[in-house]
Amino acid sequence: LKLPCAVQAMYVQAILKVFVHVGSNLLVSPEAEGEAEELEEDQEEDKMTDEEKTAVVTELAQLILTHIGQYANSPDPEVVERACQLKAVVRQCVPEEEEGEEMSVNAEDLRRLFATLGAIIEEELQPVSGKAQFKIVPPEDLKV
């Protein structure tokens, strides 16, 4: 891609957030999020089985894995780091094949994964102040 590295890094981070949001909306029970009353009507209309929901998440994960390689090979270390983290998360949603047998992903495992990731992504991160950074003594063998 010919985008600036900062834009690529934000793009990869946005892919992760969208993936987690879609997975959470499909798999995580609304009771866990405290929105049961609002989503009861939506659930009546949405009668996808766990297998269908898992298949959607798996297909989206495979699509991301297909295209994330271009970011993992970026010259910018921040883009590479985010792309590798995204790859690691997304691989948790793709079943592994063993000796020609196609394996499936457990819907309950995916629910736990997306519930955890959703909670992490929703949390607003605060930057560490410069004064606090100087209070931490770097290791002697660290070469910057």
TrEMBL record:
Answer whether the UniProt record assigns the keyword Ion transport to this protein.
no
Q: What is the source species?
A: Chloropicon laureae
Task: Supply the name of the protein.
Answer: Uncharacterized protein
Entry annotated with the keyword Kinase? no
UniProt-listed GO biological process terms: Golgi to vacuole transport; protein targeting to vacuole
Similarity annotation: Belongs to the adaptor complexes large subunit family.
Q: Where is composition skewed (Acidic residues) in this entry?
A: 32-49
Q: Which UniProt keywords apply?
A: Membrane, Protein transport, Repeat, Transport
Domain of life of the source: Eukaryota
